[in-house]
Input
Amino acid sequence: MEEVQNIVKVHDLSFQTFLDQDKILKRVHELGAQISQDYQGKRPLLIGVLNGAFMFASDLMKSISEPCEVTFVRMASYAGTESTGKVRRVIELQEDIVNRDIIIIEDIVDSGRTMEKALEYFQSFEPSSMKIASLLFKPECLKVDLKVDYVGFEIPEKFVVGYGLDYNGLGRNLKDIYQLKQE
Ligand code: IMP
Ligand code: MG
Output
């Protein structure tokens, strides 16, 4: 039987269903369970990277059964569907993270440059430990030496939108994740 693909248009581009919301939430709950186990009694601080990670951060936090806290920073590197390679920090960290166990929450690791810069920045405040949780990871695109500790899904080198991820500002409200459709 042929699978029916849902197509959405965002700006000038067409995208097709790639990961539906049930699959996403099931995996997010698995990551939450894993983090709950790994951080028993540690009261980790989740640091969501805006804008893309807001939905993942929210669902992930709800899946963590241990006491934990959340805050956000904002980093930006993308213009359109291309990583610019230049990472800007737009909202600074407001919390004191010295001696805290922090988990950086990212929507997607592509070249890895955003996370490399984030790790460097947070390291300067001397947390006791730092890990990365990313919903999506494009291993073929990685340009730096980076370990992603919690990965939702490894995906191929194709632009995606939905569940918080955008294409020039739009598409974040889609419940499923869509992949750029090859014409
Ligand atoms: P990196 O610095 O190249 O790893 O890029 C990471 C950032 O680029 C992520 O936080 C996303 O905001 C954005 N990004 C990377 N790939 C995609 C994609 O396929 N769709 C939407 N945003 C993406
Ligand atoms: Mg992002």
User: Anything to note?
Assistant: Residues 21-38 form the longest helix (18 residues). The mean pLDDT is 92.
